[in-house]
Amino acid sequence: SVAGSALPASATDSWRIPFFGQSRAELAVLGDGSGNLDLRVTDETGAVACLETGPEDQAYCAFTPAWNGYFTITVTNRGTAANTYALMTN
Question: What phi-psi label fits residue 10: left (phi over 0), alpha (psi between -120 and 50 degrees) or beta?
Answer without folding.
Answer: left
